[in-house]
Amino acid sequence: MVETPALRPERSLIMSDVTRRISRWKAKYSPEIAAQTTDRIYADMTARYEASMVALNSMELDTKQVLSASGIDTMYIVFYLDYARQLFRLSHGRTISGPTLAREAQVLLENWAARGLRPDVLAAIRYDVFSVPSPAPA
User: Fold this and answer.
1) E runs forming strands in the chain
2) pTM to 2 decimals?
3) pLDDT, tens only, 34-93
């Protein structure tokens, strides 16, 4: 018995589906409702953003102190700050902590060490700024 290949839907059916999806989206989305939602949560959004920026600035200052004590050339500070910002995103306001955070931080350390940054300085940032110890051996 010969099987017939599946038929492709006709072009008008495809366009009908696209048109139907667009009309459904237009029906449920309205700029007025979006504005009301934004107005309702704006104060909380602003407070969270401000708190996050204060924490980020504090972390960057602490990182610069570690870099200054380590004698890192100013040309490389931006790269160490990028590493610290990645650790910040990983640890700040997330549910990741403990051994999992230590392993993830170690992965970041190894990644940046492979790019040419000093592992001892990266470890100092990890521990002195973020209080994340090196992971336990597996």
Assistant:
1) none
2) 0.72
3) 888 889 999 999 999 999 999 999 999 999 999 999 999 999 999 999 999 999 999 887
> In the numeric block, which tokens belong to residue 33?
């409702």
Type of residue at 90: L
Mean pLDDT value across the chain: 88
pLDDT of residue 70: 96
CA 76 vs CA 100, 101, 104, 134: distances in Å: 28, 25, 23, 23
107-115 long-range Cβ contacts below 8 angstroms, 24+ apart = 108/83, 109/83, 112/79, 112/82, 112/83, 115/79
Domains of the chain: 17-129 (1.20.58)
Beta-carbon contacts of 124 under 8 Å, excluding residues fewer than 6 positions away, are 66, 70
